[in-house]
Specification:
CATH class of the largest domain: Alpha Beta
Strand content: 15-25%
Structural class: alpha+beta
Largest sheet: 8 strands, antiparallel
Oligomer: single chain
């Protein structure tokens, strides 16, 4: 155990009944949403502080006693980034879940790090404003979104979470509390310490409060689905779409062989049946007329690019149904998924990378369902422990563990060779740390390690994540 009775007494003095050590209470904090139990670790204890001051006291206690500490939000990540190290302590931010200040005059909202994405949307909508990023699971928390620089399909038009973070309150490994940034839109005032926290996965500080920029809401949205003969034709149509003067909210590519799983899972049908792949385009604008005008322009571009037809969702309910089919692909495949890869390549390299995925399928006798964000290059490939036929899983592959390692290495190597990276929006965590240097280079990892040592000299904050210890 990393602590003794002295640590327990001191921690209990800080958080009272919110210190838990019983295994049945800790089990839910031993994992995130990574598809297998490979990285699961039962923490030695759980603390749930109720204020920034309590967070700071817990961090100081852990620093004094040399106890490793992993901050945790909603646990919705896919890279084992908030999994504790063996015998470590989890600091859950679930009690820090309130809105600190809503400021419509400055179009900002300041909230505690444990506020969920779903609650954030409700609070922002009540202000008559809009927070565009939608990384996926609405159980994710603000601290986690910032710590992973979460993305999502809407990054084409609105960027990742990074674009909307104006201010942070963080607790350093020493227990010191820093206020970084604020409500200003411009700052050239010293080092960008706020930006340093984005994507740091809890290894540099514990994020306790977030100030976000907001936008006026779109007056209308529309979803289009365009089937093509194949993926190559679908992706080839995207540059002309982006050059058309219309900035889509999202452009997704989906091969029809992949969507069959979601169709069975939800008992619904994808609107396009012809061809082998579709583009799904989401548009928003000031009002219905504006969005319909965008849709007409987009449809004309896609038809010139080889779309067999362009289908317009006839109602909000139909839009929701189409978006759910796409967003629940992971859930449909999850029971047989070993890992969901999160590779990002330049847009021009998507087709070549996906062709490489299919070449791997044929060479190794696997099913590697692939889909992603056609306008930002983020490609999601599932490694499955079984093969698929018509959307149904077959028998388990006897050597899937060995094949998993081979596929992971080959996919990452292909991505890097094409000028890409091994994670576009899910982060590094434990799942990808051994491949980080191959993606960004040893020199860059050396700089990251130097920053880590400077801010966390004892190495107590989420140790082992991002790069090997």
């Amino acid at each position: 155990m990393p602590y003794g009775e002295q640590w327990l007494r001191a921690a209990r003095e800080i958080v009272g009944e919110h210190l838990l050590t019983a295994p049945e209470d800790l089990q839910a904090y031993a994992h995130d949403e990574y598809a297998t139990a490979e990285f699961n670790r039962l923490p030695a204890a759980l603390v749930r502080p109720g204020s920034t001051a309590e967070v700071a006291r817990i961090v100081r206690l852990c620093a004094r006693e040399g106890v490793p500490l992993t901050a945790r939000g909603g646990g919705t990540g896919l890279a084992a980034a908030c999994v504790p190290c063996e015998g470590g302590v989890v600091l859950s931010l679930e009690r820090l879940a309130g809105v600190v200040e809503a400021d419509p005059a400055n179009r900002t909202i300041t909230a505690q790090a444990g506020l969920t994405l779903g609650r954030l949307y409700e609070e922002v909508e009540a202000l008559g404003l809009y927070f565009p990023p939608h990384p996926g699971d609405e159980g994710a928390t603000l601290g986690g979104l910032v710590a992973t620089n979460a993305g999502g399909a809407r990054a084409v038009k609105y960027g990742t979470v990074r674009r909307f973070v104006l201010g942070l309150e963080v607790v350093l490994a020493s227990g010191e509390v820093l206020a970084l940034g604020g409500k200003v839109l411009k700052s050239s005032t010293g080092y960008g310490l706020l930006e340093l926290m984005l994507g740091s996965e809890g290894t540099l500080a514990v994020i306790t409060q977030v100030t976000l920029a907001l936008l006026p809401p779109a007056g209308a949205t529309q979803t289009l689905v365009a089937p093509f003969a194949g993926l190559g034709e679908a992706i080839a149509a995207v540059p002309a779409l982006l050059d058309s003067g219309v900035v889509p909210t999202a452009v997704e590519f989906i091969e029809h062989a992949v969507i069959a799983c979601a169709e069975r899972h939800l008992n619904r049908r994808w609107p396009a049946s012809g061809g082998e792949a579709s583009l799904m385009i989401v548009l928003d604008g000031a009002g219905e007329e504006d969005v319909l005008a965008q849709a007409e322009r987009v449809a004309a571009v896609l038809e010139r690019g080889g779309a067999r037809e362009v289908l317009l969702a006839e109602s909000r309910a139909r839009q929701k149904e189409i978006l759910e089919l796409r967003s629940l692909l992971y859930e449909a495949l999850r029971p047989i998924t070993v890992e969901l890869f999160d590779i990002c390549v330049p847009r021009s390299q998507i087709v070549a990378h996906v062709r490489f995925v299919h070449e791997l399928e044929g060479r190794l006798g696997l099913s590697l369902p692939t889909y992603g964000h056609a306008a930002d290059g983020n490609v999601h490939t599932h490694f499955l422990r079984t093969a698929l036929a018509d959307g149904l899983p077959g028998p388990e592959l006897p050597d899937w563990r060995g094949l998993h390692g081979k596929v992971r290495a080959e996919l990452y190597a292909d991505a890097v060779a094409r000028g890409g990276v091994i994670s576009g929006e899910h982060g590094i965590g434990l799942a990808k740390r051994d491949f980080l240097a191959r993606s960004v280079g040893e020199a860059a990892v050396g700089v990251m390690r130097a920053v880590k040592r400077a801010l966390d000299p004892l190495g107590i904050l989420n140790p082992g994540k991002i790069f090997p210890p």
